[in-house]
Amino acid sequence: MNTHHFYAQRDAIFALESFQPTEQTQKIDLAVLSGRVSNAQAIDEMRLYIEQHRSLVGFVETRTWTR
Fold first, then answer.
1. CA atoms of 33 and 10, how far apart (whole Å)
2. What domain of life is recorded for the organism (predicted)?
């Protein structure tokens, strides 16, 4: 299963429960799908950001690969 298919399946499952991807999730997914960042790198950077800031607020805005 390729990454694009995985994300589509994930979003479909969440939609069954009336959940929609956030703007942040969409930007990260697009960056991964376009090859600007690997999924593993995005996860590592997010984990480090949370440890430092105790929040995800501002995470996407500080990543060059989400622009």
1. 14
2. Bacteria
Residue 40 identity = A
pTM score: 0.82
> Which residues, at least 6 apart from 46, have a Cβ–Cβ distance to it below 8 Å?
56, 59
One-letter identity of residue 62: T
Helices 3-16 and 23-33 pack at an angle, to 10 degrees, of 160
CB 42 within 8 A of CB 31: yes
Q: E strand or H helix at 5, and its extent?
A: helix 3-16
Q: How confident is the model at residue 6 (pLDDT cuts 50, 70, 90)?
A: confident
